[in-house]
């Protein structure tokens, strides 16, 4: 890009609503779509938008996420002057060892941002599924002479009370921010994607933290402070596919939507590719007695049983006479001979014992955690819940 932009990906979320799937894994590292992880979508958006100066802010279970991303070469981000830098919490001499909020994470990494010397800083979440051309948001930011631009998503009015809501004038200037209002005045929900003019944001963060003023979180502190001081704050309306996959139900649903060849995400779109860390894998093998209907499968899969309306990820084994129906089986998992899995998510490297039966419903998806061994003769049925 002609403009000097540094992107900060907030990728430290625990994702507690995903239960056993994130017990030892940060939410952005959760597998999705057979061969991807959730963070791949944000990284691919950056690559396709030609933004290559990227800081990845991690906190919870960072090892696997950091191993997956490396220096960003799989996304083409490791160009001269670019690349992905891993930014983790550290003891700063003031007793701070962890990031206390979104804005505090940026404050703790000001030295990194200053070394990049950007004009603009883009703050992104690493745990959403979407395709977005960030250059269009930046162009809108500049055209409005904005100090801050917030990406918003129109949501159904009856769901607006679940979100941070931006109330705007006819020129999309934000007049008011309401955090989960009981009686929302609009349906423009914040997506947690921001473009800031770095020098001004830096002034606010330094003045806040050094002056004893609460400036920990963008939604709770920074945006209200900008509005109170009459800064130019604008909304950028995003109207394409976006999902935060923050619950078991939404994660299962977003995966299932990929089975519709007309789905909005369109992973096969060559004009906006989604990239991921790649490894050499064996080809898929489908046994003669196998039956496969309306399903998505990727590399190194072995199927000897019956698979219908399911998503089978890299390195999965479905043994003879096993049945997988309306389910998501994550990388490296094994479904034993004669087992039956229906309306479920089977976590990464989990194993279902031969003959085991796992049955959820469309409204109550069964879950086997990452690395878990499920054998109904030795394990209580409670392992299937996400509580």
UniProtKB/TrEMBL annotation:
UniProt entry keywords in alphabetical sequence: ATP-binding, Carbohydrate metabolism, Glycogen biosynthesis, Glycogen metabolism, Nucleotide-binding, Nucleotidyltransferase, Transferase
Assigned EC number: 2.7.7.27
Span of domain Glucose-1-phosphate adenylyltransferase/Bifunctional protein GlmU-like C-terminal hexapeptide: 288-358
Enzyme category, top tier: transferase
Catalytic activity: alpha-D-glucose 1-phosphate + ATP + H(+) = ADP-alpha-D-glucose + diphosphate
Binding site for alpha-D-glucose 1-phosphate: 164, 179-180, 190
Residue span, Nucleotidyl transferase domain: 7-260
Gene Ontology BP terms: glycogen biosynthetic process
Superkingdom assignment: Bacteria
HAMAP family referenced in this protein's UniProt entry, alphabetically: GlgC (MF_00624)
Quaternary organization: Homotetramer.
Protein name: Glucose-1-phosphate adenylyltransferase
Record organism: Weissella cibaria
Lineage, uppermost ranks: Bacteria, Bacillati, Bacillota, Bacilli, Lactobacillales
């Amino acid at each position: 890009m002609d403009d000097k932009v540094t992107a900060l990906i907030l990728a430290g979320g625990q994702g507690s609503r995903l239960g056993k799937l994130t017990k030892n894994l940060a939410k952005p590292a959760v597998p999705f779509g057979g061969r991807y992880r959730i963070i791949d979508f944000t990284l691919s958006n950056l690559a396709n938008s030609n933004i290559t100066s990227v800081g990845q802010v991690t906190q919870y279970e960072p090892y696997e996420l950091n191993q997956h991303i490396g220096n960003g070469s799989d996304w083409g981000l490791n160009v001269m002057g670019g690349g992905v830098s891993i930014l983790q919490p550290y003891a700063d001499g003031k007793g701070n060892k962890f990031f206390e909020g979104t804005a505090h994470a940026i404050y703790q990494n000001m030295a990194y941002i200053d070394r990049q010397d950007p004009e603009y800083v883009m703050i992104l979440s690493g745990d959403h599924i979407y395709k977005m051309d960030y250059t269009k948001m930046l162009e809108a930011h500049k055209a409005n002479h904005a100090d801050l631009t917030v990406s918003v998503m129109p949501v159904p009015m009856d769901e607006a009370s679940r979100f941070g809501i931006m109330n705007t004038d006819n020129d999309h200037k934000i007049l008011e921010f309401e955090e989960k209002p009981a009686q929302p005045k609009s349906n423009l929900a914040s997506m947690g994607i921001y473009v800031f003019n770095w020098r001004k944001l830096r002034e606010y963060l330094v003045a806040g933290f050094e002056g004893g003023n609460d400036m920990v979180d963008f939604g709770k502190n920074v945006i209200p402070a900008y509005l109170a001081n009459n800064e130019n704050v604008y909304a950028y309306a995003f109207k394409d596919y976006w999902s935060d996959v923050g619950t078991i139900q939404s994660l299962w649903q977003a995966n299932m939507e990929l089975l519709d060849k007309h789905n909005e995400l369109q992973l096969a779109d060559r004009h906006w590719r989604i990239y991921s860390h790649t490894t050499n894998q064996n080809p898929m093998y489908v046994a003669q007695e196998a039956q496969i209907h309306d399903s998505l499968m990727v590399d190194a899969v072995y199927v000897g049983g019956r698979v219908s309306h399911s998503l089978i990820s890299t390195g999965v084994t479905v043994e003879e006479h096993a049945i997988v129906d309306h389910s998501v089986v994550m990388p490296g998992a094994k479904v034993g001979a004669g087992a039956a899995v229906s309306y479920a998510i089977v976590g990464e490297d989990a194993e279902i014992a031969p003959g085991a039966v796992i049955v959820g419903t469309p409204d109550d998806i069964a879950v086997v955690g990452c690395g878990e061994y499920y054998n109904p003769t030795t394990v209580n049925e409670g392992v299937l819940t996400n509580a």
